[in-house]
From TrEMBL:
<dbReference type="GO" id="GO:0106312">
    <property type="term" value="F:methylenetetrahydrofolate reductase (NADH) activity"/>
</dbReference>
<dbReference type="InterPro" id="IPR029041">
    <property type="entry name" value="FAD-linked_oxidoreductase-like"/>
</dbReference>
<comment type="pathway">
    <text>One-carbon metabolism; tetrahydrofolate interconversion.</text>
</comment>
<dbReference type="GO" id="GO:0071949">
    <property type="term" value="F:FAD binding"/>
</dbReference>
<keyword id="KW-0285">Flavoprotein</keyword>
<keyword id="KW-0274">FAD</keyword>
<dbReference type="GO" id="GO:0009086">
    <property type="term" value="P:methionine biosynthetic process"/>
</dbReference>
<dbReference type="InterPro" id="IPR003171">
    <property type="entry name" value="Mehydrof_redctse-like"/>
</dbReference>
<dbReference type="GO" id="GO:0035999">
    <property type="term" value="P:tetrahydrofolate interconversion"/>
</dbReference>
<dbReference type="Pfam" id="PF02219">
    <property type="entry name" value="MTHFR"/>
</dbReference>
<keyword id="KW-0560">Oxidoreductase</keyword>
<protein>
    <recommendedName>
        <fullName>Methylenetetrahydrofolate reductase</fullName>
    </recommendedName>
</protein>
<dbReference type="GO" id="GO:0005829">
    <property type="term" value="C:cytosol"/>
</dbReference>
<comment type="similarity">
    <text>Belongs to the methylenetetrahydrofolate reductase family.</text>
</comment>
Length: 297
């Protein structure tokens, strides 16, 4: 199977899309509608999240396997280590291999409950993502991605330790990383610089959530450990009671963010799609999409 990094080439920007595994027949129908719409746009790859602790294990394996078997898309499965023993993790990795999945986004995951609360690692499991990178590597010929945090991980004490641990994941054998959401390109670019200064030149993909509603904007800030920049809130706050106006302005803000990132030579834009195609399609269309490849950089 093609590796994600084989689809990332210098000198051009492509896009990728993230899904979560559906929980009901209706969610499944909507996801597959979105998958078919994205298929026509030929994204570099699509990924499927994994519920921490294995809550979505079977659904993630099934959805990713179905994408591999029934579409022309290149799938990547997420895998979180938290609350799994090494033996259980090996089983999931084996299930991915059996479905023909060779691209895995390796993450530590958050334990259920308070994401900032104390947690005790599984006694026979892993504590941090770098250990899971090594485990997946030992299990076979996988292309491995890891998570990156432009506003640093919320649990990190400071930027220095955050960077050190990020570097450890990359040096453990990761081929690329995908960033959490952000709204100001400078935070992403500074992270890229910090990693390059430490000799880590693996592709770093920006994570983009098209802003369509106040709820989506709230989700972006909650997940990413950032506050809404004044340049964004000054445009969107007055539109809180105007859904169409908010959406149009949000898509424009998202498009401009992507344009700046393309100008900075990012290899791909990774879209958090929320299992819907429309907003991401609008942004990639605004950017001048052609056969899945965005404007030459
Ligand atoms: P780690 O890299 O292990 O880092 C976690 C924290 O520990 C950081 O503060 C880090 O600095 C610190 N740390 C790392 N190593 C050490 C060490 N040796 N000593 C001390 N401290 C250390 N969650 C899901 O449940 N399912 C998903 O599918 C999913 N997909 C995601 C995809 C992306 C692109 C991103 C950005 C996040 C995703 N998440 C997902 C959320 C993720 O699980 C959480 O952000 C989690 O808290 C961090 O995982 P990690 O792999 O970055 O952890």
């Amino acid at each position: 199977m093609t590796r994600v990094v084989d689809r990332l080439r210098p000198g051009r920007t492509v896009f990728s899309v993230e899904f979560f595994p559906p929980k009901s027949d209706e969610e499944e129908r909507l996801l597959w509608k979105a998958i078919r719409e994205f298929e026509a746009l030929d994204p570099a790859y699509v990924s499927v999240t994994y519920g921490a602790g294995g809550s979505s294990r079977d659904r993630t394996v099934r959805t990713t396997g179905r994408i591999a078997g029934e579409t022309t898309l290149l799938p990547m499965a997420h895998l979180t280590g938290v609350n799994h023993s090494i033996a259980e993790l090996r089983q999931v990795i084996g299930a991915y291999a059996a479905e023909g999945i060779r691209n895995v986004l390796v993450i530590r995951g958050d334990p259920p409950g308070d994401p900032m609360g104390e947690w005790i690692p599984h006694p026979e499991g892993i504590t941090y993502a770098d250990e899971l990178v090594r485990l997946v590597r030992e299990c076979g010929d996988f292309c491995v991605g890891v998570a990156a945090f432009p506003h640093m991980h919320p649990r990190s004490a400071d930027l220095e330790s955050d960077t050190r641990h990020m570097v450890a994941k990359l040096r453990a054998g990761a081929d690329f990383s995908v960033a959490q959401m952000f709204l100001e390109p400078e935070h992403f670019l500074r992270l890229r610089d910090r990693l390059a200064q430490r000799g880590c030149h693996q592709p770093l993909l920006p994570g983009i959530m098209p802003i369509t509603t106040p709820k989506v904007l709230g989700m972006t800030t909650q997940l990413s450990n950032m506050t809404i920049p004044s340049a964004v809130s000054s445009v969107l706050d007055p539109l809180a009671g105007d859904p169409a106006g908010f959406r149009a302005a949000g898509i424009e803000i998202t498009t401009k963010l992507c344009e700046k990132l393309i100008a900075e030579g990012v290899p791909a834009l990774h879209f958090y799609s929320l299992n819907r195609a429309q907003a991401t399609r609008e942004v990639v269309s605004n950017l001048g999409l052609s056969d899945g490849v965005l404007k030459a950089t």
